[in-house]
Write a structure and sequence with these properties.
The structure is a homodimer.
Chain A (H helix, E strand, L loop, with lengths): L1 E5 L3 H12 L3 E5 L3 H9 L5 E3 L10 E4 L6 H8 L8 E4 L5 H7 L6 E6 L20 E5 L6 H13 L3 E4 L2 H27 L4 H10 L2 H7 L6 H10 L1 H23 L3 H18 L2
Parallel strand pairs in A: 1-2, 1-4, 2-3, 4-5, 5-6, 7-8
Antiparallel strand pairs in A: 6-7
Helix pairs in contact in A: 6-10, 9-10
GO molecular function (chains A, B): NAD+ binding; prephenate dehydrogenase (NAD+) activity; prephenate dehydrogenase (NADP+) activity
Protein name (chains A, B): Prephenate/arogenate dehydrogenase
Keywords (chains A, B): Oxidoreductase
């Protein structure tokens, strides 16, 4: 199969390595010539160009740009590709993308490979990045079943765990498990910044170990990514945040009232619930 | 030196292994005969007993019981040990312990080795548990300097990083970096429990990966430990919690008002601040 990839970063580059490894011909597009060169050198693509016209004869295109560039890129692609080409994306929110793209292109299937690393860029691309990780596809009522089936086969060949769901269900789920944790964790760091006694602040920095490290990790991550997820999944993140504030208020009340039995019961529930996430 | 250890769990047992390895004679006390036997078999103590009277001739005693048992244990020890014996503890809060014990025993130096594992009990004891980790000592104005110096030498011999500070400063610092994260993280799990759409909840469980795993880890931990820290560090935890709620409220407001520039600025600050904790 001829496969196009627009955007040769960590995800686009890693897709290219895997898809070439499975015998497909992969053509890449990047805005930067240097990225095209590295992608070719690293074997992530058979050929690469700064021009979308390299994608004239592809069967499927993966749009691996930042979220805001997905729909504009597809608009530019339309005059170039044939009408039966499948387009998919790898954005971490789906409702906004699917709503914007569906009127433009019928054979569009939203996608979200839930794999990543701390760093981005073609330099960090690796084969096997998606193996064993979730890869969500979000077809809607009007998506042609043959297009879903073909994309699903390709994604399964990466040995990802494939989940099919509605774009809205995807966004609500990732609001809980990806986007809410970023704000929760950023709030922890933000609160610590408020310590005005420098002796205590210095001591806190010296004593911080695995508990603080883990809980503060995603809140200390890439600010642009944090804003993107909040912006494009604003409604569901906001709902999750209000629910979270209620949970925190309840926990504060237990501490205020020194209701240690109530607190223990609550912590038993969270221990039990968390085990269901990793059973 | 003759060293006594009361409470032969993960911390007491690991201390015993390290101290015997450095040539000290270690005598242990546990309420359970089986624990005494395992401690002897594992080489964590030279001898062990269910009776405190085994500690008649020790130079220093480490109290490694749960926090609530520290002062009662020391009351029982007083008729047995000689007046120049140093007593220390390993509790994770210090102000309440130091206030309770100082009137009982002059040569008391509060201590907090910040090392731990997911599991507790003598079975998990290991040599080198404290190496490279913080070990806080919390002498006060009335603590004899010679007692601090002698304990500090022993703790340094474990190749721990030793910090000396006031009990209150310790408790304020660990409220930020140990105790607040537990509530923040428990709140995240608690909020997810509120998702009433079972399709979305199931999907969230299936898609949860490293971000949720890390942020929810300490909130899914041992409920008894969580309650102990809240109970004995209630005032400083409560202050941290109110500060945290303010941070979360501010972040929610940025999302509500779609102030993406403001959110990006805030996330840049948290990224920068976190790097200061692990520089």
């Amino acid at each position: 199969m001829n496969i196009g990839i627009v955007g040769l970063g960590l995800i686009g580059g890693s897709l290219g390595l895997d898809l070439r490894g499975r015998g497909h011909k992969v053509l890449g597009v990047s805005r930067q010539e240097r990225t095209c060169q590295i992608a070719i050198e690293r074997g992530a693509v058979d050929d690469a160009s700064m021009l979308l016209s390299i994608l004239t004869d592809v069967d499927i295109v993966f749009i691996c740009t930042p979220i805001f560039a997905i729909a504009p890129t597809i608009k530019q692609l339309i005059p170039i590709i044939s009408p039966d080409t499948i387009i998919t994306d790898v954005g971490s929110v789906k409702r906004a993308v699917v709503e914007a793209v569906t009127p433009l292109w019928q054979n569009f299937v939203g996608g979200h490979p839930m794999a990543g690393k701390e760093y981005n860029g073609i330099e960090w691309a690796e084969s096997g990045l998606f193996a064993g990780n979730p890869y969500v596809l979000t077809p809607i009522d009007t998506t042609p079943p043959w297009a879903v089936k073909r994309l699903e086969e390709i994604v399964r060949s990466l040995t990802s765990h494939v989940y099919l769901c509605h774009p809205e269900d995807h966004d609500r789920a990732v609001a809980w498990i990806s986007h809410l944790p970023v704000i929760v964790s950023a709030g922890l760091i933000d609160a610590c910044m408020g310590e005005t006694d420098l002796v205590v602040l210095k001591l806190a920095q010296q004593l911080a170990s695995s508990g603080f490290r883990d809980t503060s990790r995603v809140g200390g991550g890439n600010p642009e990514l944090g804003v993107m997820m909040a912006r494009y999944n604003r409604d569901f993140l906001h709902k999750s945040l209000l629910s979270y504030r209620q949970s925190i208020d309840n926990l504060i009340e237990l501490v205020e009232q020194e209701d240690w039995q109530g607190l223990e019961k609550r912590l038993q529930q969270t221990q039990e619930t968390r085990s269901q996430f990793y059973s």
